[in-house]
């Protein structure tokens, strides 16, 4: 419960950080999505049904802060991204920076596609596919490039939090993620 | 392996269930926009102190860069600026004469004069974190007399409209956002249309008749007829005109006057705007 609350509050802090940092990027199309790497990190290393719910809550926070009046598009997108990444994570070599970056790139496209799918039902956006490619590609690329660094930070912060669990089993967490091996 | 598959199944079911809940929530919030109002204001108030700190840091860093590092070609810029000042001073003298003449003509025609622009200066402390929402956050709120629907300008350019207001912060919907619409006219030909945002850096002007003659470089100004923006404020300049003869209306691309990524301070107009009436209606 405490860990879940800490994750939700962390999501809020990251959303605030993203809003503040967006002004440093010109044009703002290249500003990365800092929340998505957190969702992917949770799917990789804290895989559970509760993780889906926490991703949903973080998405709701994102909607409350960023959206005009629609509540739910980012929540649905993050829940789906968590589910997809968690289901495929067993087939990935998680310690590789390339894996993390590619996962972030694909997840960014998926989340923005789902967001557009939601919003387009209620707001006229124009041609959805051109918007997705034109506006989401720069953000997806910068998110993918920044994800390995964010993953490293999340790992370090996660090691400081007491009571962390490993990915597949419920054994107490190992001291170093680098020596972790997948359970077949 | 079986445990992992069972776990995956649970996660997949949970994801699908929450996806459906999100869809229902989106539909409900679209129909009842006030649903998220209090939550949005609460989160904006929680985040506002961090945005203020970030704004102060950004100002410090960019100020240091300007003062100590970006001094290349300063002398050349200085000379160019002196020449430009001289040119602007002569333009100013001419414009003062026009203003005086305009004032006299209006008095003669007995046209109702709009009140002068009055408002509150606000600093921009953050942009929307979402790629799909074009908005910015300012450091003024209800406590400063800000209300939803107030127009926001920078110099003679239009920035947008107040969308949400908290106690000490407010969110401004930019004219480049998808849902933004401003009643506008072409300054040269007086052709009327609606300027809408495209979600990117450019705007589009719609509902301009095919018979109207529009050129690249034409200035687009507010018409004053929507009761939000005073008449005569500059929205942008025409950058492209699509004259597809099969379409009922022209599609005009506009480059906004205001650079939204570099806006640092804005003016929120607090005096209510009276919709501009035509001469025929006035009689």
Topology:
The complex is a heterodimer of chains A (184) and B (283).
Chain A: H1 2-22, H2 35-45, H3 49-66, H4 73-88, H5 97-120, H6 128-160
Chain B: H1 2-31, H2 37-69, H3 74-109, E1 119-127, E2 135-138, E3 151-154, E4 157-165, E5 170-174, E6 181-186, E7 192-197, E8 203-209, E9 219-222, E10 234-242, E11 249-256, E12 265-269, H4 279-282
Antiparallel strand pairs in B: 1-2, 1-12, 2-5, 3-4, 3-12, 4-5, 6-7, 6-9, 7-8, 8-11, 9-10, 10-11
Q: What would you note in describing this structure?
A:
The complex is a heterodimer of chains A (184) and B (283). With 184 residues, chain A is mostly helical. Chain A has six helices and no strands. Chain A is globular. Chain B contains four helices and twelve strands. In chain B, a hairpin with a 2-residue loop joins strand 3 (151-154) and strand 4. Classes of the chains: A mainly alpha (184), B alpha+beta (283). At the A-B interface, helix 1, helix 3, helix 4, helix 5 and helix 6 of A face helix 1, helix 2 and strand 1 of B.
Features:
heterodimer; A: 184 residues; mainly alpha; 6 helices; 67% helix; globular; B: 283 residues; alpha+beta; six-stranded antiparallel beta barrel; six-stranded antiparallel β-barrel; 4 helices; 12 strands; 36% helix; disordered C terminus
Oligomer: heterodimer
Overall residue-averaged pLDDT value of chain B = 81
Count of helical segments of chain A? 6
Q: Which outline of chain A best applies? A: globular
Q: Please provide the count of β strands of chain A.
A: 0
Number of strands of chain B: 12
Compact summary:
The complex is a heterodimer of chains A (184) and B (283). Chain A is mainly alpha-helical. Helix content of chain A is 67%, strand content 0%.
């Amino acid at each position: 419960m405490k860990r879940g609350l800490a994750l939700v509050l962390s999501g809020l802090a990251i959303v605030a950080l993203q809003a503040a940092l967006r002004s440093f990027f010109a044009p703002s199309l290249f500003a990365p999505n800092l929340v998505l790497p957190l969702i992917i990190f949770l799917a990789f290393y804290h895989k559970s049904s509760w993780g889906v719910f926490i991703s949903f809550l973080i998405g709701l926070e994102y909607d409350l802060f960023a959206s005009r009046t629609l509540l739910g598009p980012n929540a649905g997108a993050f829940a789906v991204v968590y589910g997809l990444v968690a289901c495929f994570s067993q087939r990935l070599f998680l310690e590789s920076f390339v894996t993390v970056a590619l996962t972030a790139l694909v997840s960014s496209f998926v989340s923005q596609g789902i967001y557009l799918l939601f919003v387009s039902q209620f707001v006229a956006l124009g041609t959805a596919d051109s918007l997705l490619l034109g506006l989401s590609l720069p953000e997806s690329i910068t998110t993918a490039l920044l994800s390995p660094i964010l993953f490293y930070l999340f790992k370090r912060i996660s090691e400081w939090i007491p009571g962390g669990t490993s990915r597949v089993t419920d054994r107490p967490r190992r001291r170093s993620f680098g020596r972790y091996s997948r359970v077949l | 392996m079986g445990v992992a598959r069972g776990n995956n199944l649970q996660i997949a079911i949970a994801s699908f269930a929450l996806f459906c809940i999100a869809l229902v929530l989106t539909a409900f919030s679209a129909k009842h926009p006030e649903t998220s109002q209090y939550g949005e204001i609460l989160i904006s108030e929680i985040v506002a102190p961090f945005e203020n700190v970030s704004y102060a840091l950004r100002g410090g860093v960019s100020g240091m860069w300007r003062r100590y590092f970006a001094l290349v070609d300063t002398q050349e810029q200085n000379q160019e600026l002196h020449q430009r000042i001289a040119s602007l001073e002569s333009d100013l003298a001419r414009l003062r004469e026009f203003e005086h003449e305009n004032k006299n003509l209006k008095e003669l025609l007995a046209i109702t004069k709009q009140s002068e622009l009055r408002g509150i200066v606000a600093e921009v402390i953050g942009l929307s974190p979402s790629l799909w929402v074009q908005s910015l956050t300012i450091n003024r709120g209800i406590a400063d007399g800000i209300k939803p629907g107030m127009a926001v300008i920078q110099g003679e350019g239009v920035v947008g409209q107040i969308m949400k207001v908290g106690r000490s912060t407010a969110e401004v919907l930019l004219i480049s956002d998808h849902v933004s619409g401003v009643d506008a006219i072409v300054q040269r030909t007086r052709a009327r249309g609606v300027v809408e945002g495209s979600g990117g850096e450019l705007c589009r002007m719609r509902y301009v008749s095919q018979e109207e003659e529009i050129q690249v470089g034409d200035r687009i100004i507010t018409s004053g007829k929507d009761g939000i923006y005073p008449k005569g404020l500059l929205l942008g300049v025409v950058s492209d005109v699509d004259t597809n003869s099969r379409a009922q209306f022209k599609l005009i691309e506009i480059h906004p006057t205001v650079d939204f990524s570099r806006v640092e301070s804005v003016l929120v107009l607090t005096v209510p705007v009276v919709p501009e009436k035509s001469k025929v209606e006035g009689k």
